[in-house]
Design brief:
24 strands, five-stranded parallel beta sheet, Dna Ligase, domain 1, binds glycine, about 30% helix, Rossmann fold, five-stranded antiparallel beta sheet, binds adenosine monophosphate, about 425 residues, 4 domains, globular, alpha+beta, D-amino Acid Aminotransferase, Chain A, domain 1
Length: about 425
Amino acid sequence: MNILILGSGGREHAFAWKLKQSSLCKQIYIAPGNSGTESIGINVQISVNDFNAIAEFSINHNIGMIVCGPEDPLVNGLRDYIKSNIKTKHINFIGPDKHGAMLEGSKDFSKKFMIKHHIPTAKYISVTKENLSEGKAYIHKMTMPVVLKADGLAAGKGVLIIDTVEDACDELDKMIHGMFGAASSTVLIEEFLTGIEVSVFVLTDGENYLILPEAKDYKRIGEGDTGLNTGGMGAVSPVGFADSAFMNKVEQQIVKPTIDGLKKENINYIGFVFIGLMNVGGEPYVIEYNCRMGDPETEVVLPRIENDLVELFLATDNRELYKYQIQTSNQYCTTVFLVSGGYPGDYIKHKQIKISQGHELLFHAGAINENGSIYTNGGRVMACSALGDTLEGALNNSYTLVSHIEYEGKYYRKDIGKDL
Ligand code: AMP
Ligand code: GLY
């Protein structure tokens, strides 16, 4: 089978690496891909939001499966587009339709969904221009800090955590008046939850589900979780505190009601549900849903999965997941992201990258190949993933890989996994 992967990050390189191991996989294409995906398949210069070009390419290259890495094509309705075209509807597509993708595309929608289906989450109200004064009155009654969230997709930047009532009211004003464009014309004012975060991944065919290995992501740029938010600076799997008692609560209180809720709402959800959770004194609360896999979490989750991923994906779009169980390796997997100096602020691209000793689990992200040389091409450059029998062992292997890669301005966090 020919497979088309959409996206250009470390997540998509990891998908390509894992799918390529299947005997069912013939040729992998990645649109648009990066210097790493090129070593596994063929990169094609199609943008992930060019639905027409994706459909044309799929028809012309006999694509049997499309795996959508990022959220925006899903939120924009790529599944609906592929499944409504007579020439592409047979293609196995991994990712929910436009309605399902609203779990990520609208935080107001996902909060209402959680409340309706009794899924534990922080208390909130949702505010627009019309009830702005109600929003400010709500802030005055809250314990600080308070969380303000843009309803729509804001490239990971739409969440503010604010310490004083005055600042919260000011920022609420700015958000409602266009700070994140249309994404913040509705804002959620949310209670701040204190705890430790963990990412849980569910693969569902709309009826049945499998829970994949969990992971912890390190979002801040600075050591000790300080500084600005990034796309993710590293990740580890498994996560010590997510023991079987905790994961049992996650399944009963969150995963089951989520999948049941989607069914009750007649949402034909096929693909990943990525649940961002907060462990508050041993109890799981949903911070957010995403309609795709995480990045960099994919780079530590897939190396721990022993199943044939093409087989699992075929079963997903054929409603046959009940036939499978996830086989997870007992090993630890960690990843350390190398980023461009200055990221997540301004940074310079096109620095040549020298890799003195690579590894199969070195997943490229913001990196391109030009005539055989590799150059930086984004903020997050490469995810140095590694396995080990212990967390320390895996981290040592990741940091050894880090030491074999050089480019001007190379930056990474030295404390990934140190808090666990
Ligand atoms: P989100 O985009 O919803 O994942 O939010 C981004 C980050 O903000 C999360 O990963 C959390 O670290 C933090 N966050 C969001 N909502 C809350 C909350 N209710 N309480 C505490 N932290 C939060
Ligand atoms: N690692 C967080 C995300 O993919 O959104």
